[in-house]
Every structure is written in structure tokens, then in C-alpha cells.
Amino acid sequence: MAKLSSINKNERRKKLVKKYAAKYAKLKAIADDKALDDSERLIARLKLAEIPRNGNPTRVRNRCATTGRPRGYYRKFGLNRIELRDLGNKGLIPGLTKSSW
């Protein structure tokens, strides 16, 4: 089980990303548009820098929904590999079967 503080910190980051998503996308589009004047692009970059650091989507870490473990995460299930195997063996994940050959 991951530290509760790490899980809570990640949740706060998700909220900030959601809050600033529209503003971030708009400024990012302006800053990356090569057709615009360099001064406009620079102003957009400076405004991007004013957004809180944790408002950047790359700072959010994928974590297991049950344990909060950050490694071995499967996006399709929202679980890490250990929990996926345990729940799969118990038959709690629909459509998932243990492979054998």
C-alpha cells in the first residue's frame, strides 16, 4: 500500500489539472502555433509559466485504484499487476481469464 500522503497529493494534482485544463490547452495552442508572431507566442509561454506547477497534466501519476501503487499499472483496468492477478484469479474482473497452455 502506498503512503496515504502520496495518494492524496496525486488527487490534489488531478483537481488542479482539471481546473486549469481549458486555459492550459488554449495557451499551449497559441505557444505552439508557428504562424503567429514571436511576441504573441512568448506572451503565451509566460502566461503558461504562471499556471501552478501541479496544474500541468504531466505531473499526474497513474496509480492503482485499490492500493495506490504507482508501478506496474494497467490503464485498461486501473489496477497494478499484482491486484489485477489477485482479482482476476478470484473471478472479480469480467472477461478476464487465467491463461494456461
Average pLDDT value?
93
Overall geometry comes to elongated
**Uncertain ranges:** none
The ordered H/E elements are HHEEH
What top-tier CATH class of the largest domain fits best? Answer: Mainly Alpha
Task: Give the CATH topology of the largest domain.
Answer: Helix Hairpins
Number of domains: 2
Describe the structure.
The protein is 51% helix and 4% strand. By secondary structure, the chain is mainly alpha-helical. It folds into 2 domains: 1-61, Helix Hairpins (Orthogonal Bundle), CATH 1.10.287.1480; 63-96, Irregular (30s Ribosomal Protein S14, Chain N), CATH 4.10.830.10. The protein has a two-stranded antiparallel sheet with strand order 1-2. Helix 1 (4-32) runs antiparallel to helix 2 (38-50). The protein is elongated, with a radius of gyration of 20 Å. It starts with a helix and ends in an 11-residue tail after the last helix. The relative contact order is 0.14.
Brief account:
With 101 residues, the chain is mainly alpha-helical.
Write the layout of secondary structure elements.
Elements: H1 4-32, H2 38-50, E1 73-74, E2 79-80, H3 81-90
Antiparallel strand pairs: 1-2
Helix pairs in contact: 1-2
